[in-house]
Amino acid sequence: MPDKLETSPVCCCTIIHQDVVDQVKEGLLPDSSLGEMAELFKCLGDPTRLKIVYALLAAEMCVCDIGALLEMSTPAISHHLKVLRQLKLVTFRRSGKIVYYTIADEHISPILSQALAHIKESGNG
C-alpha cells in the first residue's frame, strides 16, 4: 500500500530565503492601491459592463443608443454606467437633454487588449 498521499505541496519550514522575501516586500503595492485595482477588475468582471466599455471604445454613445445596442432598458444601462463612472472608466457630456458617454482615458483599451490576448493565448478565446 502506498504511503500517505500528499494533497498539496507545502514547505516544511517558515522561511528559507529572507533576502527574497524582503526584496519582494519592498516592491509590493500599498493595500489602498491593491484595493482600487481589485475594484477595477471586479467592475470589469461584469459582462454587460464589458460590452458597454467595448461599445464606447468604438464610439461615443448616448444611454438610449447603448440600450438599443445591448437590447437592455435605459435604467439598466444607466445603473451600469454609474458604476463605470464611479471608477472613472467612462465620462460624459451633455448636449441639451442628451447625455453622451465616452471612455475616460487611453489606459482602458490596453487593459482589455492584454486580457483578450491572454485569453486567446491560453486557447479560451
UniProtKB/TrEMBL annotation:
Keywords: DNA-binding, Transcription, Transcription regulation. It comes from the Bacteria. PROSITE patterns: HTH_ARSR_1 (PS00846), HTH_ARSR_2 (PS50987). The keyword Nucleus does not apply. SUPFAM superfamilies: Winged helix' DNA-binding domain. The keyword Transcription applies. Residues 29-123 form the HTH arsR-type domain. One of its GO terms (molecular function) is DNA binding. CDD domains: HTH_ARSR (cd00090). This is ArsR family transcriptional regulator. It comes from Desulfovibrio intestinalis.
